[in-house]
Specification:
This protein has about 180 residues and is mainly alpha-helical. It has a single domain, classed as Up-down Bundle (Growth Hormone, Chain: A), CATH 1.20.1250. About 80% of the residues lie in helices and about 0% in strands. The chain is built from eight helices and no strands.
């Protein structure tokens, strides 16, 4: 994986967190600096930890799937990408819960980072060390989430939907590239 691929993976994986951050900005009456940093830290930390978990979990069964692992990586990334594209079409309404309370933050951070677990397995299949991509994904998500909260009041849900759509397309394209390299 080169730097551009890691960057695109980080952006694609952070699209869900970006959309939720925008929603938090839209639906919250007041957003303090500490709230912005808290949501960004939660999303960034979980997006960074989940690929590591997927990478380590992959060691349990990677020896058994090495001959067709490129198909699995493409399938996982395409599944996540299609899911993101479908989610981008759903309307979102403002919820009345506190986006910045620890309970909802934990749930949202886990929910938006599940796709990063599969990405960690894909990174293992590519025989790439996980630490650099995981740190990059975490930092990218932190920044993207911070930006999302800041523009949430102005941009609205439409920007979040576009980010999810583009993120889904990027993941599918990365999956196709992995498959093409595996078949070569």
């Amino acid at each position: 994986m080169n730097l551009i691929e890691i960057f695109l993976l980080g952006l694609a994986l952070s699209a869900d967190a970006f959309a939720v951050s925008i929603a938090a900005g839209i639906c919250s009456k007041e957003v303090k600096v500490t709230d912005k940093l808290k949501i960004s830290a939660f999303f960034g930390a979980f997006q960074g930890m989940m690929p590591v978990a997927g990478w380590f979990a992959g060691f349990l069964f990677l020896p058994y799937i090495k001959t067709f692992d490129h198909w699995i990586a493409m399938g996982l990334l395409s599944f996540i990408g299609i899911k993101m594209m479908i989610e981008s079409r759903k309307p979102e309404d403002c919820r009345t819960f506190d986006y910045f309370a620890y309970g909802p933050l934990f749930i949202m951070a886990v929910a938006t980072s599940i796709d990063a677990l599969a990405a960690g397995l894909s990174i293992l299949i590519l025989d790439v060390e996980i630490y650099y991509p995981a740190i990059f994904i975490a930092c990218t998500t932190f920044v993207v989430s911070l930006v999302g909260v800041n523009i949430g009041k102005r941009a609205g849900r439409r920007l979040g939907q576009s980010a999810e759509l583009v993120g889904g397309i990027i993941l599918i394209l990365i999956g196709i590239k992995i498959l093409a390299e595996g078949l070569a």
